[in-house]
Design goal:
Layout (H helix, E strand, L loop, with lengths): L5 E5 L2 E6 L3 H21 L2 H4 L12 H13 L7 H15 L5 E5 L2 E5 L4 E4 L11 E5 L6 E6 L14 E6 L2 H14 L6 H8 L5 E8 L2 E6 L3 E4 L20
Antiparallel strand pairs: 1-2, 2-3, 3-4, 4-7, 5-6, 6-11, 7-8, 8-9, 9-10
Amino acid sequence: MRRVYRKFSHKDSNFRISSACFEALTAEIIRQRRLLESYILRQPEFRRSLRPVALLPGAPAIAQRMAAAAALAAVGPMAAVAGALAQWGVEFALRLGETDCIVENGGDIYMASPEAVRIGVYAGKDSPFNRLAFEVQAEELPLALCSSSGKMGHALSLGCCDLACVVAKDAALADAAATRAGNLVQENNELQACLDQVMQIPGLAGVMLIRGQQIGMAGKLPRLVKQAPGNSAALLTRDKNAGFEP
């Protein structure tokens, strides 16, 4: 299937979306974002905290998803916002009757499709692993594939990981766990120890970590394949603040 991706930006969020109901989906994302912003006015700690927080009564469902994921991954709830919005958008499209929908939000992807989906790996301009791609089979979908990096993008990371990828059924959890994984990777520690620690988080399918010339994997990841030179531009996650190549 040849998919058409359309770009959509709202405030500091940058999306690439493949959906037949693009306008309705993006309107729903904006609505959820506003609900979240209104809630943060009630509880500013929700936005600032780097640790899990207890929610106030009446928190919107999107905040509840984020808080639950943050509690499992031991990070702040905003570490789950991109994944939570991506999954919410896809699930909204599915309720409208769509069967094929992919939402990517700054490196965090949620996808549903009756066919296989290929997602390219990008770990920085000179990474030896940029020819890799995940080939996600139809029977594995819907699925989240979320990423974090200490070298690219504007999202906060406390580590030195070129790329941390986490696969899970829950995109908020995958997003939060990717942040946790990226935080754990430092200049000289062992990737395997980081993988072991991240895989203790309940609900994860698999994790991949890239640091320089090193790559480590744990759990059950989608099949890795080589992508042809020049094909990566159509597959890469892009963020206008990340310094990714066009």
